[in-house]
Specification:
There is one protein chain. The chain is of the alpha+beta class and 203 residues long. The protein contains 5 helices and 10 strands. Strands 1, 2, 3, 4, 5, 6, 7 and 8 form an 8-stranded mixed sheet that branches. Strands 9-10 form a two-stranded antiparallel ribbon. It is globular, with a radius of gyration of 16 Å. About 3% of the residues have low confidence. This is NUDIX hydrolase domain-like protein. GO terms for molecular function: hydrolase activity. Pfam families: NUDIX. Keywords: Hydrolase.
């Protein structure tokens, strides 16, 4: 959904992280009239293969930022009961995964303009998803109208922008490039890995 370069951080009325999820888009916009809409991103991690990996999905070739990689997410709908509901809905629509819990907010809100010049505040969250088979990577089901492939990438692969092997549709590839939709998308992913590592060290 990030269609334009990010703007300066601007001013967002302070809201505790725990309260962001319970707010509706309308409530947030009422408190922050400089914005036109709210968007969310979901960082889905799995250690099923032994190493921490994140789900990345590849944008369809007919969409904006064709072929680039991002995490599941998108704009809040007016019908969404809360931003929490928006996270769950977008996650299900774009990956087929069912939200189990929101672990934490990752970083500050990203602020950008869409192609139609709407000012957006995007919040990114680490989430847990339902995993029917323990120890197995969650089964991803993409919406082909929006995304054409997916991978589970390590922190190093995200940092380097290269993955050993390819996505399910690219069997036989030795390596593939990972070009993100924006530098901010890459930064939030790497921050997600860092926060997980910090939390593990505190245990």
């Amino acid at each position: 959904m990030n269609d334009s370069p990010p703007l300066s951080k601007g001013s967002i009325s302070h809201v505790p992280d725990s309260d962001i999820l319970t707010m509706t888009q309308e409530c947030f916009l009422s408190a922050n009239p400089d914005f036109d809409c709210v968007a969310t991103g979901a960082l889905v991690f799995s250690r099923a293969t032994g190493e921490d990996r994140i789900l990345l999905i590849q944008r369809a070739l007919h969409d904006s930022w064709p072929g680039r990689w991002e995490v599941p997410g998108g704009g809040c709908d007016a019908e969404d009961e809360s931003i929490h509901h928006s996270v769950a809905r977008e996650l299900l629509e774009e990956s087929g995964l069912v939200l189990k819990d929101v672990v934490r907010e990752v970083g500050e809100a990203q602020i950008f303009l869409t192609r139609s010049r709407k000012r957006v505040a995007k919040f990114t969250f680490e989430v847990d998803v339902e995993t029917p088979v323990p120890g197995v990577l969650p089964e991803v089901a993409l919406d082909p109208a929006e995304h054409m492939d997916f991978i589970w990438a390590t922190e190093e692969e995200c940092q380097l922008g290269k993955k050993a092997g390819g996505p399910p549709s690219g069997l036989g590839l030795e390596t593939m490039d990972i070009e993100f939709t924006s530098d901010e998308q890459k930064a939030s992913i790497l921050q997600g890995f860092e926060l997980r590592r910090e939390c593990e060290n505190l245990k």
